[in-house]
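Appendix C reproduces, verbatim, an entry submitted by the partner laboratory led by Prof. M.T., so that reviewers can inspect both the input and the predicted structure.
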Amino acid sequence: MKKTYILPLATLFLLSACTTTKNIQPVNKYEGKSASQILSQMSLEEKVGQLFVIQPDQLDPAFGRKGFKYHKTFAGVLAKNQKKYQVGGIILFGGNIKDKNQLKKFNSTAQSLSNIPLLIATDEEGGRVTRLAKTKALELKNIPSMEEIGDSGDINQAFDAGIYIASYLSEYGINWDFAPVMDVNTNPENIVIGDRAFGSEPSLVSDMAGAFLDGLHENGVKGCIKHFPGHGDTKDDTHDDFVAVYKDWSQLKACELIPFTENFAKADSVMIAHVTVNNVTGDGLPASLSKELVTGKLRRELGYKGLILTDSLGMGAIKKHYSPGDAAVMAFNAGNDIILMPAEFFKAYDGVLKAVKNGRITQKRLDESVLRILKFKGFMYD
C-alpha cells in the first residue's frame, strides 16, 4: 500500500522557494543516446573511470601528504585529471565548501569537464553526519538525528527530513545522498552508528528510512541505503580496522536485513560495509570484498538489481590489509559496481585497468557494471 505523507506548511513554503532557484544541470554530451550506444563508443579507460567515485581532491597527486588542503575550486590539476580519467563521480566533504556561489561553481565546473554526467554525492544524513548543513555560510538548518526522528514515531518527520535535505542538495547540483542509514542499532556499545540509526526495531527503521528515501526522491535526489548487511550490532569502527558481525544468515534476515529487503523496490543504491561476517561467508573477507556476500547473497538470493557500491576503500579495515589496486579489483570482482574512495585513486585505477587487460576482470563483467551506472545516471537501455 502506498504511504501518504503530510507535509508541514513550513516545508511546503520551503519547496516553493527552492523551485524558483535554477538548479545546476549537468552537461550531457550523449543526450538522446541509449546506455548501450554510449557503451559501444567508450574506450576501455573511460569505462574504468566510470567505476570510481572519489573525493575531488584525490585527483591531485599531493592528496594525503602533510599539509594538504582541500580544494575549493575545480581547476588546475583537478580539471586536468578529470579530463584524463573521467571518473564517474565525486563525493564532497566540508573542506570542499566555502559558500553558496563557490559550491555551485565547483559542481558546475566538475560537470562541464565530464563527458558523461557526473554523480556528485555527499554524506548528508542529518544529525552529526552532514557536510552542507554544518557549513555556516550556506545558512541551512541541520536536521535532528535520525534517532530523535525515530523516537517521535512520526513517519512524516522522516519524509520531511528527506524532502528538506534533497531541496538544498539539488539546488547546489548534488544528485546523490549517501543516506539513509538502514542499520538497526541493536548494540548499545556501538560507536559508529548510534544516533545515526532510526532505532533498534527493524520495522521502525524500515518505515522511517523508506519515508526518508521518498522525501529525497520528491526533489530528484537519489539515495543510498547503508551499511549492508548491517553495522548496528557492532562495537568497533571499520574506519580503524576489521570489525566482526557474529550473527548467522538466518539471524541477520530476522533483524538487520529487514529494512534493506523491505526497501529494495525503491532503493537507488546499496552501500556495502567492511564488516566481516564469518558465520555467513566462508571466505573470511570484509563484506565489501566478498563475492559470496555481494553477488551470492545480495544479488542472487535477495534479488537486488540496482547499483551496489563499497563503503570507502580508504578506511582502515581495507587499506591496512590490501593494496589500493588489489582492494579495488577484489571489490569489483565481488560484485560492486562503484569503487568508493580508494586509499590511492591512481593506483586503484591502474590496478583495475591492468586487471581488465590481463583478464582478471572480464570485459563482460566490466560492461555489466558500466551499463548499470549509465542507467543510474538516467540513460535508458535499448
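The radius of gyration is 20 Å. Additional entries are available on request from the coordinating office.
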